[in-house]
Design brief:
424 residues, alpha/beta, Aspartate Aminotransferase, domain 1, Aspartate Aminotransferase, domain 2, 2 domains, 7-stranded mixed β-sheet, 15 helices, 17 strands, 17% strand, globular, binds ligand C6P
């Protein structure tokens, strides 16, 4: 208990983030989820909530500026285009891309992987080629490569993880060979929370002439990300996990690679000239953005980026590290609780997955829900990871910049209550 108090004191010292004022930015956090039961939202890894500024930016766009982008010569269309492209510039700066042409708007991270598998993969992967993944991948960074490998006769290989939920890097020299054409891996596991050594993995891929793609869905929302420092060839992430709207995500790619790739989908906006025989493609990034895009959503994501920048990503990361340390310490007091993934906050994002002996993860989540605590239970779209751990499901509590230590205390109390319900 003394240790926990020390951590709490450290938190007040750390409160440069001013969590109470941040909470006031998120209208949904005032909700009672059942009569008299306030919401404790611990499911940000699945999708975060949105601050008012994001909702207002989208509302203002629809009320004052909506028209189709890139098409009109009237004022409204110009305004919509400026807002849509302005957001792209700010997103490019946020991840330190060298230009906004490297930022392709997608629907979500999943679409980013499918785009690369379809466009780059179908052009560059041949029979016998190898694609290296890890055993901790989300299905989004698994299924598109399985589909591609099946179609092309390519081979998938996997970097295993160790007992503590970190990658077994000693296997890399064997797994990365001249046959490897792509190494695609997550920066942060959505189950273990493991923070992988991205630059080291990218360098290892490049050393054998392979490309490196990073799944940054659980990284970009939580820590400063710099694609130049990582030197990755592709990177995908989702807007809805970083205070932005659903329906918008980003694929980053190195310019020379994107330039050489054929379009993913055909239609309006992605062409320069069309006749009855064929077409020529638009410049980057529009070559990959066929049809009327998610305009309001892109603008909302641009505002989410401004919001995160105002808070400071270093500060967000430091606060989440503190929260994770606090959660690991507090959860260890629950009898029968087994944590999956690294046991120290330094190696772990703001994600804690666990099982409680004698209670199914879905029952744990259900009992917590009745106390207003929203967590996720199941395989978290990482079935192979769970199979490797010899389980079918975990319960997962995930944190974000508005999470408080009091909410983590409620989680722990809720777990004690669940054990009582099951007479454990
Ligand atoms: N993980 C979770 O609860 P989409 O669905 O395309 O926005 O994001 C896919 C995705 C890719 N990679 C990682 C590491 C992810 O965590 C996710 C989404 C959510 O863990 C929803 S399944």
């Amino acid at each position: 208990m003394e240790k926990l108090q020390k951590l709490k004191d450290f938190c007040s010292f750390l409160n440069m983030l001013n969590v109470q004022s941040i909470r006031a930015d998120f209208p949904i956090l005032n909700r009672e989820i059942y009569p008299g039961v306030p919401l404790v939202f611990l499911d940000s890894a699945a999708s975060t909530q949105r601050p008012s500024v994001v909702l207002e930016a989208m509302d203002d766009y629809y009320r004052q500026h909506h028209a189709n982008v890139h098409r009109g010569i009237h004022r409204l269309s110009e305004e919509a285009t400026e807002l849509y492209e302005g957001a792209r510039e700010r997103i490019a700066d946020f991840v330190n891309a060298t230009g906004s042409c490297q930022i392709i708007y997608t629907r979500n991270a999943t679409e980013g992987f499918n785009l690369v598998a379809y466009s780059w993969g179908r052009t560059n992967i041949e029979e016998g080629d190898e694609i290296l993944l890890t055993e901790m991948e989300h299905h989004a960074n698994l299924i598109p490569w399985q589909m591609l490998a099946k179609e092309k006769g390519a081979v998938l290989r996997y970097v295993p993880f160790l007992e503590d939920g970190t990658l077994d890097l000693s296997t890399l020299p064997k797994l990365l060979t001249e046959k490897t054409k792509l190494f695609s891996f997550t920066a942060v596991s959505n189950v273990f929370g493991t923070v992988n050594p991205v630059r080291q993995l990218v360098d290892a891929a490049h050393a054998v002439g392979a490309l490196a793609m990073v799944d940054a869905a659980q990284a970009v929302p939580h820590m400063p990300v710099d694609v130049q420092a990582w030197d990755c060839d592709f990177m995908a992430f989702s807007g809805h996990k970083m205070c932005g709207p659903t329906g918008i995500g980003v694929l980053f790619g190195k310019r020379e690679l994107l330039d050489a790739m054929p379009p993913f989908m055909g239609g309006g906006d992605m062409i320069l000239r069309v006749d009855f025989e064929g077409a020529t493609w638009n410049e980057l990034p529009w070559k990959f953005e066929a049809g009327t895009p998610s305009i309001a959503e892109a603008i909302g994501l641009g505002t989410a980026v401004d919001y995160l920048n105002d808070l400071g990503m270093d500060e967000v990361h430091a606060y989440e590290q503190f929260l994770t340390g606090y959660a690991l310490e507090s959860l260890s007091e629950v009898p029968g609780l087994r944590l999956y993934g690294p046991a120290s906050a330094g190696q772990k994002g703001a994600v804690t997955s666990f099982t409680v002996a004698g209670i199914h993860p879905h029952d744990v989540a259900d009992i917590l829900d009745k106390q207003g605590i929203a967590v996720r239970a199941g395989h978290h779209c990482a079935m192979p990871l769970h199979h490797r751990c010899g389980i079918s499901a975990t319960t997962r509590a995930s944190f974000y910049l508005h999470t408080t230590t009091e909410e983590i205390d409620k989680l722990v109390a809720g777990l004690h209550h669940a054990r009582q319900v099951f007479r454990l």
